[in-house]
Every structure is written in structure tokens, then in C-alpha cells.
Amino acid sequence: MPVPVWRPVRVGAVPPPATAFQPRTGLREEIDRLRARHATVVLTQVLSGGGGVGKSQLAAACAHRAHADGVDVLVWVNAAETSQIVATYATAAHRVGVPGADGQDADSDAAAFLDWLAVTDRTWLVILDDLTRPRRRQAVVAPPTGR
Ligand SMILES: Nc1ncnc2c1ncn2[C@@H]1O[C@H](COP(=O)(O)OP(=O)(O)OP(=O)(O)O)[C@@H](O)[C@H]1O
Ligand SMILES: [Mg+2]
Question: Which residues form ligand 1's pocket by a CB distance below 6 Å?
Fold first, then answer.
């Protein structure tokens, strides 16, 4: 039986770089340093700051680079509403072929996607853009731990 071919999965629309994009090298290097120190575990990074300071642009730059580097799974979530997070995770579950994610129930598919992230050997990057009140939504957005 032929072995299924893995193709990189891209879910969500990563914003394009702003006109006259400034790479903000110092911040990027700080992120790279943290990633390098946690190469074999899941790393959660929070970019916080006032409106319009460039959080989404910085995250998008990380996403574009991860894409160029060939990350297996890249998910950009518009996280302003919990329902959007659930719907995007459910789509991602379907796209990566999470067992049991059959499109019948978005909540359980989204939960299955988080479970899959926790155990997969695939490389992945999930960006939650515009996330407010993360503690209240911990059950939905909680990143997996342990790897
Ligand atoms: N690195 C950058 N280089 C050039 N322009 C930038 C950069 N970062 C942000 N901008 C400009 O600032 C605008 C707002 O940036 P961005 O959407 O990333 O902010 P934000 O912090 O995510 O804002 P919000 O809190 O409203 O989501 C961009 O549309 C762009 O015009
Ligand atoms: Mg933003």
C-alpha cells in the first residue's frame, strides 16, 4: 500500500508585511534566542502591547519565515472570538488528518487538534492573533505541554 505523502498544512491568512516593513531585528533576535533554548519543547510566546504597536506584524514576520523554512503545520488564528479559535482549530484538525476529526462537532475536532499538537513529531507554529482575556479562554487555547 502506498505511504501517504505529507504536504505542509497552512490554515488561516497570515497578514502581508506592511508597506515599508521594518524588521525590528532586536525583537526578532530575542524571539530566536528563546526558541533556540527550547528547541525540543513547545514554546509559548506572548507579544503584548498597545494598539497598533506592531504585534501582528511581528507575529506575521515569524509566520512568513516559518513558512519559508518549511514548517509542517502553520496556523494563523484570528483569536478575537472564541468561536473563531474553535473553527480554525477544527479546520486544522481536518487538514492535518487528525484521527476522529470528522467535521461533525467543531468543539471536539478543535480539542482533538490540541491533543494532536501535543504528541505529533511534525513541526508546527500556531499564532493566536488579537487574543484578549487569555485566562478566561484557557480551556480553548491552552497550548499543549510536555514536548
Ligand atoms: N515592523 C513594521 N514595519 C512597518 N510598519 C509597521 C510595522 N509594524 C507595524 N507597522 C504599521 O503599524 C500598523 C499596525 O501594526 P499591527 O497591526 O501589527 O499592530 P498591532 O499591535 O497588532 O495592533 P492591534 O493591537 O490593533 O492588533 C501596520 O498596519 C503597519 O502600518
Ligand atoms: Mg494585531
Answer: 18, 20-22, 24, 49, 51-57, 130
